[in-house]
Amino acid sequence: MIDMGAVRAEVEAARAELLDEEDNPKAILSLGTRKRVWRAMIDPEDPEASYRRRIELKMA
Question: So which domain of life are we looking at (predicted)?
Answer without folding.
Answer: Bacteria
